[in-house]
Specification:
Radius of gyration: 24 Å
Number of helices: 10
CATH topology of the largest domain: Rossmann fold
Structural class: alpha/beta
CATH architecture of the largest domain: 3-Layer(aba) Sandwich
Oligomer: single chain
Number of domains: 2
Strand order of the largest sheet: 6-7-8-3-9-10
Distance between the termini: 38 Å
Strand content: 25-35%
Length: 307
């Protein structure tokens, strides 16, 4: 049985070459049903190219992709039925009314008798009710994005591919679209590309980071925040300890005050250091307010892995 069996999205040894440039370089990953996964990377890293290949809009130079167990190369039409796609540019027909455009999209997917109920369901779910009578060109950027999401979901796909869904939106619109995607993700698998780290932390528990066409990280957010900080313990005391006391700790390779009764201790054996600190504190009548491994912000991790 394939290791990707049962996955909503499976990418194996995927490559895309333009002339002498490897835009995507032999990457592999998979998404389970119900996951919302952040797909991060600097401009030109290969995010949009990868998404276009997953949706079947761009053929790969090598490797394989399956969506809901269906090979994209062998059966792209069935994959289109299983997939909803919101491109970064969000191409819309500005002269069409909202309902007219969604009816047009439903026709492409041949929804038949399901067309009207699906249109009304999408208008309601994406918060377009008050704007549904307008032409798309008259809508704000935020509502245009909602129309884009509505068309991506009109055929009730199992998988959503969203490329920069909040690009150019104001803070209020970002929160609204973020909440909408989080709600959608309860029932569907979502691969979400964005440059906004707050979005990733608000919606995703897993992140894939790509740089220069290669995957440089694929892990849950909390684990990623501990990248390059495995040897650091941060301890806050109820009262300031004497610096000389730290010399007694055998498992620390260095220590420094971080202010406000907080100290950062480096170690090659952080777990052993944590135990030693607890005993050491009791011996010196020191109360520990908190003790934890040092973590980085997601922004720091991103810069570390992609610079």
């Amino acid at each position: 049985m394939s290791i990707f069996a049962g996955m909503s999205i499976s990418v194996s040894s995927l490559t895309k070459i333009y002339g002498t440039q490897r835009a995507v370089d032999n990457i592999s990953f998979s998404l389970k049903k119900g996951e919302i996964v952040g797909f991060l990377g600097p401009n030109g890293a290969g995010k949009s190219t990868t998404m276009k290949m997953i949706t079947g809009y761009l053929p790969p130079s090598g490797g394989s992709i399956s969506v809901c167990g269906i090979d994209v190369a062998k059966d792209p039409m069935t994959v289109h039925k299983k997939t909803g796609y919101l491109p970064e540019a969000n191409p819309l027909y500005y002269d069409m009314y909202v309902r007219e455009y969604l009816e047009f999209t439903a026709g492409i997917h041949k929804l038949g008798s399901e067309t009207k109920p699906r249109i009304e369901a999408m208008i309601s779910q994406t918060g377009l009710t008050k704007e549904a009578h307008k032409k798309i060109g008259a809508l704000s950027k935020g509502y245009k994005q909602r129309v884009g999401l509505a068309q991506a979901m009109i055929h009730n796909p199992e998988v959503l591919i969203l490329d920069e869904p909040t690009s150019g939106l104001d803070p209020n619109q970002i929160v609204e679209i973020r909440e909408l995607i989080a709600e959608i993700g309860k029932e569907k698998t979502v691969l979400l590309s964005t440059h906004i780290m707050q979005e990733v932390q608000a919606m995703c528990n897993r992140v894939i980071i790509i740089a220069s066409g290669k995957i440089v990280a694929d892990d849950n957010i909390e684990s990623l925040k501990q990248v390059n900080t495995q040897g650091a313990i941060v301890v806050t005391f109820d009262k300031e300890p004497a610096q000389a006391l730290f010399k007694e700790l055998k498992n620390t390779t260095g220590y420094a005050s971080a202010g406000n009764k907080t100290w950062k201790l480096q170690s090659n054996k952080p777990d052993e250091l944590r135990k030693e600190i607890m005993q050491w504190a009791v011996q010196h009548d020191l109360s520990i307010a908190s003790i934890q491994k040092e973590t980085q912000s997601l922004e720091d991790v991103f810069r570390t892995l992609t610079k």
